[in-house]
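Could someone model magnesium ion with this protein?
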Amino acid sequence: MEDGRSEILKADGLYHVYESKAEDGNVVALRGLHVTVFEGEAVAVIGPSGSGKSTLLKCLGGLMKPSAGGVELAGSRMTRLTGTQLVELRQRTVSFIFQDSNLLPHLNALDNVAQPLRHQGIAPGPARRKAQGLLDRLGMGERSRGMPEELSGGEQQTVAIARALITEPKLILADEPTGALDPITSREVLELFEKLHKEEDVAFFLVTHNREVAAFCERSLELRDGRFVAQHGAELDIADLSGSRELIIDDTGTVTLPPDVLTKIGGPGRFELPEIERDSLNLERVDVERLQVEGKANLTLAQTCPACFHIYGDSEEQRCPECGSSRPMVQA
Ligand SMILES: Nc1ncnc2c1ncn2[C@@H]1O[C@H](COP(=O)(O)OP(=O)(O)OP(=O)(O)O)[C@@H](O)[C@H]1O
Ligand SMILES: [Mg+2]
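Reply:
Sure, complex below.
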């Protein structure tokens, strides 16, 4: 509890390893993450491709069992529930929105949206009426009889979003929810999210590269290589992350510095801790000279994005404008 609010979602020490028999071996996708989302809070997760965002979302939503660690949804520990209890808890509490809409191909838009209510035992008439109302609100009212294959990518995603909202969930877990939408539809969806968030206290946990989506959230967590490396406050501007930086130290004591912080402190090296106090850590570089001799401190911002090969040129941007990946440091 914080400020009298209870936690809608809480994860402790989440690890996930994808086991593989291939030569490159197992992939450790999550490395001991702690996540807390309070009722009615909106949290964004940002991070480069492959950093573990989708894996995290699936573990948090109970779609995948983490290799270690526990997840509590609305106060129930998911790993302790039977299959039926888990389905029931998810139906009551949480909805998912994925980047690909995952619509049922043999049902029209209206029936896709009504389907979660039908699963809850609600009769077809009322379920369809509510579905139509939601599609109207999202500007899709006239396309409600269309089959998924007849709808554009953006329309399919809008239908998927309506389907996620129809059960009035307390928490929405979304993986790039507006990734496939045109800017106008995307903004309409955000307005609806904002309304649900403000007026109906719906909590959001969103993976996004989109600045407007992240700005709608109160907090953003930055994931890199399966660890949270920073947390950013409200009114986030993804292009300017350095202002409100926070570091997260995990259970193993590991800290990962974001690349721009690493540049600011003068690159990698050895540090002394002259004073160690509770809640405070002071670093002092001890081997600057030796590092300079070895040329190790001579790091510079990478010229191309390792994820999407965007060319930065002379710019000093810390984050790829194309794919949102953090810009790494490389040897000059
Ligand atoms: N089914 C799988 N089997 C093996 N490895 C996987 C599997 N799914 C994901 N991975 C690996 O786990 C890591 C994290 O993947 P994940 O899909 O969670 O990243 P992401 O942050 O969602 O990336 P993106 O932004 O591209 O969607 C990556 O190294 C990925 O290659
Ligand atoms: Mg992903």
